[in-house]
Amino acid sequence: MASISKIKDFAQEYSDNLARILGLDVSIIDQNNIRVAGTGFHQQLVGKPVPKGSFFETILKTGQPGMIFDRRKDSQKCRYCIFNEQCTELATIGFPIVKKNKPVGVIGFIGFTPEQRKTIVEHSGDLSKYLKHISGLIVNKLLLQEMIETGDCQIRELDSTPSKRHTFDSIIGKNADFLSLIKKARKICKSPSTVIIRGENGTGKELLAQAIHYEGKENHKPFIPVNCSAIPEQLLESELFGYEGGAFTGARRQGKPGKFELANNGTIFLDEIGDLPLSLQPKLLRVLEEKCIERVGGNQIIPINVRIISATNKNLESMVKKGTFREDLYYRINVIPFRIMPLRERRDDIPLFLSHFIEKYSVLFNRNVPRIKEGLEKWLINYDWPGNIRQIQNAVEYMINMNESGILDFDDLPDYILDEANQKLNNQNSMGLAEMVSQFERKVLLERISTNKDKIDKSGIAESLNISLTTLYRKLEKHGIHLD
Ligand SMILES: Nc1ncnc2c1ncn2[C@@H]1O[C@H](COP(=O)(O)OP(=O)(O)OP(=O)(O)O)[C@@H](O)[C@H]1O
């Protein structure tokens, strides 16, 4: 397979022209993180690897475009870069070069001076459009090179869909509890132990599962997701364990491997494990304990070596008590548990998600990045986001589509959120001051308790609120909050 380094003269010539016309510096790296072309400061670095953990490396790993408008303020995106302290770049836009669904390089514009930074900020939409276009040209040139090298003259189809291999670089968050979860998750990537990820819908359970897999030792092996609640019970068994030819009416004559076989030597991600029917639970237990499966309608024992990562939003403990989830299976899947907090328990991350998704969708839709009105941002930080990150992502995508003014405002919100906002406002308008204060008090108490969920320290909560323990008990009772 031809690498961008094979077309480095073409890449350098293009970079020089772009830099001359746009007055920005240009840099291109290949799939091995080697700079293959560069202008200005980066010209002297051509042929050398880019610093470990750099922003371009992240784009290469995740296949997602990105931009930094002020490196001094937006420290998150460069936090793993070993060159971060010495770097003098002010702003960057980077775009993955994606060939057949796989990122094979990155091209980007860089601004070192305040003027260059201004150009990047003000024309981000057009610049990302250029980058997308040039990245396509580079891929075509690469395919041509490949055809010349292999003598294969058939033009193959291009697929520029960014790949979906998520690593820890794709995970956003700076909340202290969330970061400590990520730190623990990084520790267990290389181990084959079974993992369970708990959390509400849209909190990033699959994203974390992927990161654990793709940063693990077997990251070149498959990651196979299965949603246990989306497949009807009668089909789930054959989906998971496969079937032999003629096992049931409508079965393929030659049989079919199941997801466990497909995931062999890699990872199977069992989403919504709480919905796994009782009838199938012994079979899963057998995979965990004996590392083998039997296809439906077959009698051959097939050895299986997969890492199992499961996820659920259900209360498995109470399911075990009720007898709808097997206790032995519960313990087998619960070896390394993680709980991802819902967004409302880490509101400090909301501005980060807002700016991340605003940039992402502006780049994808070739639009200039809009500002967000301060009042709206505050309101969104206080919104409860029942659908968590998936919901914030969809809401921002909707807003970027709707916005025309360059400043995101309440009118740009999706209707269902706007209706809720209006309703809240109406309720508040018809509420007396005492009721508003009481509602606020209840909210604060619930927030303090939820951040102390593992072990509720009532004296600590009372102290942090500057009230006595007796007053805390009185207030909890008044609001009907029971802790035990
Ligand atoms: N910390 C994060 N940083 C960046 N993106 C995130 C983060 N968490 C979630 N997302 C994004 O939010 C969306 C939902 O995430 P994901 O599907 O992993 O959630 P989930 O908990 O598995 O959802 P469900 O329970 O509905 O299956 C995805 O697009 C994912 O990339």
From TrEMBL:
Keywords: ATP-binding, Nucleotide-binding. It holds the Pfam family AAA_lid_14. Residues 171-401 form the Sigma-54 factor interaction domain. It comes from the Bacteria. InterPro entries: AAA+_ATPase (IPR003593), AAA_lid_NorR (IPR058031), GAF-like_dom_sf (IPR029016), Homeodomain-like_sf (IPR009057), P-loop_NTPase (IPR027417), Sigma_54_int (IPR002078), Sigma_54_int_dom_ATP-bd_2 (IPR025943). SMART domains: AAA (SM00382). This is Sigma-54 interaction domain-containing protein.
